[in-house]
Amino acid sequence: LAALVAASVLDSPPIAVLGILGGLATPLLLSEGTDDAVFLAFYVPLLALAGWGVYSWTGWRSVGNATAAASWLLLVVLVADSEAESIVGVGVAIVIVGLLAWLIPLGRSILESGDSLAERPSHFMEETIEPYLRNTSDRLTYLAPLVTLTLLTFVFDLSRYQWSPFFAGTAVLFALAAVALFSADFAKKAYVHTTMAALLGSIGLTLALNGDVLIVSIALQAVALTYISDRLDHKPMAWQAHILFGIALLGVLGRGVDRGFDGSPATVAWLSELAVLGLATWKATVQREFGEYFGMAVHLVALAWTFTVLGDPWVIVAIVGLYGV
Which of 6, 57, 85, 219 is the most buried (most CB within 10 A)? Predict the structure, then answer.
């Protein structure tokens, strides 16, 4: 804390970064095992609040990034050392740090975009690596809720169905933030929040479903994300749609292999897999929204799946002939 105050007074980011690193090292060097879990549950949010407080005042991204790295590393140690009697405190610490990691850098970035902050004296360290610091800071900000939820899954022993509303609720929170950012003319930040909302929503829906409904829902989510990415002209969401289609196709192929090529799938399974292949083929051929190699992969999976269903080599020959035409 003294280092952070001195750095702010002397306009020296290196002193602040050293203070953050010292705050990180102190509990690691003095740790005595699980007895320190309760102390760390109070210490980590305090360290995070101090570091991001200096960042919000000065705008030094090196301090913000060091605070994020130190806080998350300490939380990983905290999760590893926590026991049953301390899980509530650990969970609260993770949520507090996650909210700070998202809201403070986002608020600072919005104020910087609006030119409503007084200029702080620049430092050569910040100027030298400014592009790298800015990109890293943005990524750490937008990934904070996802990292928070991931750490919480290691603390609380809940089923996938019980975790589903937490991911879905976080997706709704990001969607509301995206709407607010759109209304305030921060389109780029709104697009990123929309992408994260779609990602978290997909995870929440995936956790809530199973079996045939799950594999079809993944493909439908990919179609929806493709449509949204076209409307917003946002490539990261398009790649997210491609990844979901890839997961769905791998699921179809894996289910076919598990059947052992016996040619006797259940009717519902057959229809669900056919629906996934139909959606992927439609996007790859009719709308031509996939790259050449991904489109070819869609067709090859369709051929392999057809063989697992029909089990007749002559049918494959006929399909290959039609495909060639």
Answer: 219
pLDDT tens profile 151-182 = 888 888 888 888 888 988 988 998 898 888 88
Query: What is d(CA 23, CA 74) in angstroms, rounded to the nearest whole number?
Result: 10
| Dihedral-angle region of residue 260 (phi above 0 means left; psi in -120 to 50 means alpha; beta otherwise) | left
Give the separation between CA 125 and CA 313, rounded to whole angstroms: 66
Backbone φ/ψ region at 266: left (φ over 0), alpha (ψ -120 to 50), beta: beta
Query: Exposure of 135 by Cβ count < 10 A (0-12 exposed, 13-18 middle, 19+ buried)?
Result: exposed
Nearest Cα residue to 201 out of 163, 170, 179, 226: 170
Please report where in the chains the tokens 């101090």 appear, as a residue: 50
Which residue type sits at 42?
F
Going by C-alpha positions, the residue among 269, 262, 165, 261 that lies closest to residue 210 is 269
Instruction: Give CA 112 to chain center in angstroms.
Output: 25
Closest listed residue to residue 41, CA positions, set 100, 82, 69: 82
Total number of residues shown for the chain: 325
Q: So what's the pLDDT on residue 241?
A: 77
Q: Which residue has the higher pLDDT, 76 or 39?
A: 76
pLDDT reported for residue 72 = 87
Q: How many CB atoms lie within 10 A of CB 132?
A: 12
Q: Over the stretch 51-108, which tens digit does the pLDDT of each residue have?
A: 888 888 777 778 888 888 888 888 888 887 766 566 788 888 889 988 988 888 888 8
